[in-house]
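BUG: 3D viewer hangs when loading the predicted structure for this chain

Environment: internal workstation, default settings.
Expected: structure renders.
Actual: progress bar stalls at 90%.

Input used:
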Amino acid sequence: MRIGVDIDGVVSDSYPFWLKELNQHFGKNLTVIDDYEMHLAFEVSREAMNDFFVCNAEHLLITPKPIPGAKEGIEALLRDGHEVIYITARTPEERDVTVRWFKQCGIPHKHEHVLFSGFNGKLELVKHWEIEAFIEDYQVNARLIAESGVPVFLLNASYNQEELPPGITRCHSWDEILEGLQALESKG
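Structure tokens produced before the viewer hung:
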């Protein structure tokens, strides 16, 4: 099976680290990110938030640890003969730091299977690469991908607590994701 995998919030445990850095930068003391639109939570403009991420991109992308179980989960998928295609909302300019992070963390990847959608959304890449299942944390992307007929496994997060439509399965760990993918494959 060809499986699409998001990076931030699915493989990289970015959000807790970003929360700490954002609190420090904007002089806040938030304990949780409960809205994917982080500028709203920090009460700053979208431009101010974008400037923070652009100016600190390397530090923000290279420092986080992997999500617990992500490395092992991806290794298991590859061992079982699945193809893993990373599709991230990061920009193409962030390719080098992203690939360095994969290497630093020992996360298996093929250079040509790390795709950058930037702010254009992931659906076009999901269709182009004929992804058969997708692992995501951002509910908007999850909905669009599921509506196109691709099953989505949504890794639970504080910012994705909305009710789920058909085609999206909420998972609380990589073990649950792997179980869901096995069940999907056995239906196949």
